[in-house]
Amino acid sequence: VQLVESGGGLVQPGGSLRLSCVASGFVFRSYAMNWYRQAPGKEREWVAGISSDDGVRDYADSVKGRFTISRDNPKNTLYLQLNSLRPEDTAVYYCNFYQRGAAYWGQGTQVTVSS
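and the corresponding structure tokens:
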């Protein structure tokens, strides 16, 4: 199993980024997927989730209306569109899924929001 995130970077407040997570080693289309983030000195927190067939999307209150999760099952890729970014969105962003009670994580991609 491998999850590889990309797309992070330095952006000014109010800016946008699009994160990607390419999955391999499992049947991507069969699993719900999530994005989490971890800011310096804080615990990892759930950001957004999407069902296996993209029928259900859910968001943390802190990002609702600003972030959009999506997936492309034929491309085995998960996305997170980040709009109206704020300094408090600065964190390492991870994609994730659960299989038989085990959690799988990518290496993360750094998002820094600063002027």
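(Above: one complete record from the training split.) Residues 71 and 78 are 4 Å apart (CA to CA).
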